[in-house]
Amino acid sequence: MQAALPLPGLFLLCTQTGEHRQSGDDATHGCAYIRRTNRWRADHAIHAGRKGLQNRLRTGKKIDAPGQYTCLPQKAFDPAGDKQYIYAYLFRNLQVQRVNQVWAIDITYVPMQKGFMYLTAVIDVYSRYIVGWGLSNTLDAEASLQVLRQAVAEHGEPEIINSDQGSQFTCKEYVDFLKEEQIRISMDGKGRALDNIFIERFWRTIKYQHIYLNPAQDGITLYQGISCWIDKYNHKPHQGINRNKPANLYQMAA
User: How far apart are CA 232 and CA 242, in angstroms?
Assistant: First the structure.
């Protein structure tokens, strides 16, 4: 059986990727990255190879002893919603050409040093701007709906909002609110995570660049850290939008 790696070893690839992306360098697999990784392993007496570290990050081994940690939490259970509130996916082959044309909303599990919380975020697909987010300690639909209400109050209504088929979004309260605001409802196909690819990419980014590297002691610390990180995210260049900053692109076009 492969021995569990200590905390610094498991965080190596996360940290390296975060440092490159924060500095605007996306080429994490180049010669400089390999040399830096090899030096780090030598300095910390880590004998596992690069592929071994990558495998540990992908599989997310459980904690076995003090000082050992997993980068990947177990998948949170998201119960299915009411079938009468499931809507068709409207995003396929749609050309997104302006802000507030399409928003995407989702909720994800966030681990802390002790316990966990749930993070809801709403992203404007055109600009990649995070128009709203919030934390809760339950999967209750009202928590996610409150985030959406606040986003609409601050930024106006989008034409379409896309979500998965989780119980937070396939319920009467959520659907009624969107209908009242005359927002078209779009939902991913069952089992098709890539239908909501923009919010899924955001989850991966915030988890690998912030949450896994800075496990919060409590909900207040978690909120403060996420708030600071999202502000930086909204105001730094993104490769997917031609090195524009989401905040600038959203505010100029809104």
Answer: 17
Domain enclosing residue 14, as ranges: 7-59
Structure tokens given for 94:
């749609």
pTM of the model: 0.73
- CATH number of the domain to which 114 belongs: 3.30.420.10
pLDDT single digits (tens) 20-30: 444 344 434 44
Same domain, 47 and 95: no
The count of domains in the chain is 2
Judge if 149 and 188 occupy the same domain.
yes
Residues 28 and 110 grouped into a single domain: no
Quick check: 2 and 61 in contact, CB under 8 A? no
